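Hi, here's the filled form for the chain we discussed.

Project: internal
Contact: R.S.
Residues: 688
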Amino acid sequence: MKRIVFICFGIALLLTNSVIAKTSFNSLGKDSLVYLEPKEEHPIEMQYIVSLLNRYHYRKADLDDSTSDKVFNNFVEALDPSRLYFLDSDLAYFERYRFKIDDDFKQGKLDFPYQMFHVRRERAINRLNYIISVLDEGEMDFDEDEKYYFDREGAEWANGKTEWDGLWLKYLKNQALIYKLQGKEWDEIVVSLKTRYERWRKAIYQNKSEDVFQTYVNSFTSTFDPHTDYFSPKAADDFNINMSQALEGIGARLMQNLDYTEVSEVVVGGPAYKSKEVKEKDRIVGVGQGDKDIVEVVGWRIDDVVQLIRGPKGTTVRLLLARADKALTDAPDTVTLVRDRINLDDQVAEGEIINISDKGTDFKLGVIRIPSFYRDFENARSGADDFNSTTRDVKKLIDSLKLKGMDALMVDLRFNGGGSLQEAIELTGLFIKDGPVVQVKNFDQTIEKHRDTDRDLFYNGPMAVLINRFSASASEIFSGAIQDYKRGVVLGETSFGKGTVQNLIGLNQIINDPSKKLGQLKLTLAKFYRITGSSTQHQGVTPDIQFPNLYSAEEYGESSRESALPWDKISSTDYKETNDISQQMIEQLNKIYNFDLNNDPQLKKLVEDIEKANQNKDRKFVSLNYSERKAEQEKNKEEEDALTTSISTELKSTENEFDINKIEKLKTDPYLKEGLKLLVELTKMRVG
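And the returned structure, exactly as it came back:
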């Protein structure tokens, strides 16, 4: 009881100092919102987490005032990323904790996060009441010349109720205008917004102690690196949603992140993965069944969202996604998916022959797509003859493609986020005689060199590797080794840059108390290094021929994350390059590519799309004037339609000149098309 009185007293003081009427504090009473307190096991969990990170994390960081400052900022950012809820007086009050958090962690004290969370929750309720009152006043005026500044990174918190109300009025107006631009009448807009925010209110009442603890601990773990996370017992269960629930649906694992349902993982082979439009950390803000209206799910608990997304194979579901790389105030994207049952066969490597005629000469190009580096460790350990393995499957595919007369091979690793290190090493071994493939530097600074010891060269023909920004980890090991040995040419975008190794530790394994269900800690133990000694961390793998980059390093990739471990270098290994790819070949291929960049209609459209996206990315505000927004919307559509028509005409006019333009599947994949054109040129160089 004393602890509750202390927290109440602290918040009451805070609210007295703010401009919000003290009567609003009454809504925090036990008859409405339940006071959230740390659970009995949380202090000891926190102390063990601190100990594990200090002992085993790759980055040796002192738990001091500097760390305390970062945790404070991270926690505030987690609770109020758009700086809409807290007032400047709130932050002034909590400044007293900024440099005490390190001591609190060591002692297992959790007063600060629960106090701040309660205030954030109170502020949210206050704002929801304000929104409802504004909507009840009648239709908004969309003829005024107003702007809404949606990019609030680094913005000041509101100074007083008048400024706070003005900020939220424009926030709400932008939300209403988005609906209006979709053709909804005011009455429909009011119903949609009220439904959304009342759901949000319901979710606030459902917040649990674990939500606060997990958010706070992750504000600490993220100071070490972006891949070190704490999962509360409930979050761990959410992350590992029973596959029977997830598989006949969209193929994505979801987790609760305060008011939002967040994509924690895209399952390889599923509809979400195949669409290439659903990304990790995207937030699902709406779900629509078939042609029915999209239902707002902001503020829903994850179980309810999962039930709405799930459905029979072959049915359609539409997701309204707030992108991870955009502000929550940006208009969300609608992605349409056809539900399917995900089979293991959908998650394995697949291959095909693509026939291309170049100036009267026919080429049979093999394309092998590898969605992940998978390995059935259990059956491999038991000595099974035919366990599931990337390398084994690729060997079979190469044999099959050889029988069809394959002239050259493209290994497509786009959107391959990694997987088994052993498979990356063994797969590399199919294309080199022997030698080192990757180096691993552990948290204790010891270095291991992993080698291909099989002297057989399974495939020695011309080859290229196609990567993009989402190729990570094991994909970077493989493509980096192929590049370093000069065994093949690497094409595409600079890869993700994840050169770190994580391990998952269940805290129940350490704290032996069967009566308590504890969380899990995923922590970074080691770093990958190429055989040259260069880390894949941060910088990723830079292609020999770099295609237009749809996703910048500032938005996606390791370098977009503030706490990412730095790039560095260790000693090179002793390895022998092949003579398959020369610098002269790469220079010649780049000349051919640069010509295509200026003449190929699909590549030109990509460049224009990227330039336009970059221009929009620099925008800090949107107009709240309906006529202005509508004109902008129509102009964008006209420009897009004109560009699509122009490209279609150009492609048709070049079908006889470039046979590759006749291949239907390549009309929607300009990266693969350009990659195959360059592979033809490489094959001619190798034969010559």
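Let me know if anything looks off before we file it.
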